[in-house]
Amino acid sequence: MQKTFTEFSTNAVLKIGNEELLDSFRTSKQPELYTFIRTKSSKAEIIVDSIPYTIEPHSILALTVVQYFQFITGTDLVVYQFNREFYCIKDHDHEVSCAGLLFFGNVHIPIIELDNKEQRKLDILNEVFLDELETKDTIQAEMLRMLMARFIIISTRLLKAKEGFVESSKNTKIDLLRDFNLLVEAHFKTEHSVSFYAEKLFKSPKTLSNTFAKLNTSPLQIIHERVILEAKRLLIYTDKTAKEIAYEIGFEDASHLSRLFKKYTELSPSDFKKQLKQSV
For the HTH araC/xylS-type domain, which residue ranges apply (predicted)? Predict the structure, then answer.
């Protein structure tokens, strides 16, 4: 089952369906659409950036447009896919507060568990989605965007609750983490120092470090993990050499990337590539 909404004036696309929507991902590729996968009574098996994940029953997983995704198994799924023309995460972040958490969370793949109440709520919302797709009028696009905003808000609230984030004021730790993640996503190929991001956020590097320590991470770790993730993607899914990849993600000397890569993986980029070929 698959239903598609298109808005030719803006090139907006929204797709709603079941596991059939994921059939084209039997081999790994980038979705090019923001994707939500919701399991119901059974689990699903997927691979994201070469790492296998199990989505347990009654859960939601969110994928960005840049992750490499492969669908292995899953039945009775609810799948939503949309492009930035339909709903721009960054432009609407003041409404849904999901950027840097639900999306653009670097290496973190959010999987959100649903209790019985939330399952019923999302079942009803999906019925409204499907009904609205059949309603062809001048406000259909606006209604569908409002429904997607509601789905994202519900998912973001649940994720925050799962991670134990408490927003007591406008400038919370999680807001700072979200903003930092967004900046890293935008600049990690050219900027690898904490001071660059601290200046953009009008914070000192020490303030960032102290704040993120309470969230069991560090600003430098987030930068490095994003760099390593991109290096892995390019090693796995392209034919680029380790030297070419180093230049692409901002290292003038390939040996600098090699040392960082080995720190996180215990392998040099070249050895990682060789190991991939051997496993294939």
Answer: 178-275
The per-residue pLDDT string of the chain (280 residues; one tens digit each, 9 = 90 and over) reads 789 999 887 788 999 999 999 999 999 998 889 999 999 999 999 998 888 999 999 999 998 887 889 999 999 999 999 988 888 766 655 655 565 667 755 556 788 999 999 999 999 999 999 999 998 888 898 999 999 999 998 998 888 777 655 444 444 777 788 788 888 988 999 999 999 999 999 999 999 999 888 777 899 999 999 999 899 989 988 889 999 999 999 999 999 999 999 999 999 998 888 887 776 5
The structural domains of the chain, with segments of one domain joined by +, span 2-163, 173-279
Ordered alpha helix ranges (H), the chain: 93-96, 116-133, 140-163, 173-187, 194-200, 205-213, 219-237, 242-248, 254-265, 269-279
The CATH number for 2-163, chosen from 1.10.3470, 3.40.50, 1.10.10, 2.60.120, is 2.60.120
Domain 173-279 annotated CATH 1.10.10.60: yes
* pTM (global) more than 0.90: no
CA distance 213 to 188: 21
